[in-house]
Each structure stands twice: as C-alpha cells, then as structure tokens.
Amino acid sequence: MKKYQLQSALVFALLSILGLSCQKEQHTNLKLNQEIAMASANATQPPFNLEVILNGEGKSFGHVKFRQDNDADKIIALDTWVRDLEPNHEYLLQRAVDDKNVVDGNCTSTSWLTLGKGLVAQSILTDDKGTGNEGLWRSVAALASGDAFDIHFRVIDKASGAVVLTSDCYKYIVR
To answer: 154 lies in which domain range?
Structure first.
C-alpha cells in the first residue's frame, strides 16, 4: 500500500509541476502578447533619434548623432564625428532621402544634399590626427509630423568630392 501511496504522491507532484509550468507558460505568453500589443500601439510613437554609423576604407569611421527634439521648430541636431581621415582636411556631410511614399528600408535616392547649420553648408575640419567633429543641424518644419522616409548619409572630401564614408539606410519619422 505504501508503494501505491508513493506512486500516487509522485503522480500528484508531477501533475502539480506540469500545471504550474502551464500557468507559467500562459503567463509568459500573456506577457509576450502584451509586449507585442504595446509595440504595435507605439508604432505611431517611434524613436525620433538615429545613431548613424559611417564606414570607409581601412579604419576610417564616422558617427552622426541624429536627434529631433519635441519642439515646434522641428530642428534635427546632427552631431557629427569622424576619425582616421586625412589630417587637417575639410569634409562635408551629405544625405539623400527616398520619396516618402516609398518607405521600404532600401535607400535608392542619389539626390545628395550637403548638410550644415540650417541651409548653410558647414565643413567638418579634421585635426592633425584625422579626427573631426561638428554640430550641424537641419529643419524639417516643412514636413508633417508622422511623415516617414528612408535616409542615408555619406561624407565627402570637400576639395575632390570623393566619397570617404557611407552609411546604411535608416527609416526616419518626423516628430
């Protein structure tokens, strides 16, 4: 009889563990579904900032900290940093934007616009080690909040126009 009671106790314990496991799985699934629902709800509230990475030949590298504050002026700050480029030399940051009706993560535009301080182009001057940074900005006040587009960047040599750094394609949505 004790063997039967022990087997019953083991079966009961196993069923209890399985029941708790199922409850945990249901709780995990519920939490996952809630996270998916939150992500869907927040799809209209995207991050309005990009961390743009620029790559070039060898060790040359760049970064654009792309930030749009929540303000009526719709100014995008483009804090740009480059390294391992030609020392004591001038470079320009450019961007190309795909038509806002075709947001597919595949940047195809070659209509490059030189960026700067507002509408005035601004060079990025490197130091004697080939490192440079510049606080650039651009207004997107002409665009409606929620407008989305694919955007990519490049850095060119100001003197020759040669492309020295390029970025991947990024999706951007105007705040």
So the answer is: 49-173
